Amino acid sequence: MSALPTEINKSRPSLRPMEVLISGRIEEVQRYEGTYQTRVICPAADQFSQPQNVKIRSKQRLGSKEEMISVTCRLGGYKRKVFRATDKETGEIVSVVPVDMTLDLVD
To answer: In whole angstroms, what is the distance from residue 24 CA to residue 47 CA?
Structure first.
């Protein structure tokens, strides 16, 4: 298993841990509390898959609607309020901790 990270680092030497490359078309740009929030639709993996939608936060505008972009982002996240759910198979009550992921443009 230790060989895997080395192979990944060789194929993408410019990416650091917790960084991702996002490529796609800008669907919407909003400004909220001094930060741009850009919704990007990424190409589907194949003709039978749905395209992924992501939101990127940045200090500057990344582009205009329908423009193609390719940017490096830092992956982050935070926990939300815990809630209880019942497992349908076992009937056991479990605590679920939702996690929201964020993407911030690497300057």
So the answer is: 16
Contact call for residues 4 and 15 (beta carbons, < 8 A): no
- Residue 34 Rama label (left phi>0; alpha psi -120 to 50; beta): left
Domain extents in the chain: 20-105
The rounded distance, in Å, linking the Cα atoms of 8 and 12 is 6
Query: Residue 65 belongs to what H/E stretch?
Result: none
Q: Rounded distance, CA 73 to CA 55, Å?
A: 11
Rg (CA), the chain: 18
What span, in angstroms and rounded, lies between the C-alpha atoms of 101 and 81?
14
Class in CATH terms, 20-105: mainly beta
Mean pLDDT in order along the chain per 10 residues (107 residues): 45 80 97 96 95 97 96 97 94 95 95
